[in-house]
Amino acid sequence: TKKSMKKLFALFIGLAALQTVACADDKPIALKDLPAAAQQFLKQYFPDVKATYAKVDNDLWSKNYDVLMADGSSVEFDKNGNWTDVSCKASQVPAAVIPQAIRNHVAQQHPDQRIVSIDRDSKDYEVKLSNGVELKFDLKFNQIGFDD
Length: 148
Fold this sequence. Notes:
9-stranded antiparallel sheet; alpha+beta; 3 helices; 148 residues
C-alpha cells in the first residue's frame, strides 16, 4: 500500500542518515599532521597566534580539517589544505586572505567595518562584517546577496 511504502521509505532515509553519522570520524590531530598547504597558511597569515587545537573530520563524502587558535580565531581547510573558512571574530581576517575585489567593495560600501569571517566554496564567497552584516559574492566577486 501507499502508506507502507512511505513508512519503508522513511525507514530507509533514517537508516541512511544513521549510517552517515556513524561513518563520521572526528579526531584530534597534531598540527604537523595537517596538509602542508594548511601548515603554510597558518605560518603565513597567523604567525604570531598559537594554534591550540586541530582535528580532522572524515565522513562518508569528504574530509576536512579544523584549527582553533588561542585568540579564538578558527580556520577550516579542505582535504588538500586549502582554506574554506576563516573566522576572526575578536579581530579581523588578515587582508591578504581576502580577494582584492572583495576588500575594495567593503572599503567603498562599508568603510567603517572589519571583515571578521570569510568562507568560500565552489559557488561563492560569504563575508561577515563586524556589524553583523553578511555579504555574498559570486566567484567573479560580484555581490549577489546580503543578510543583516
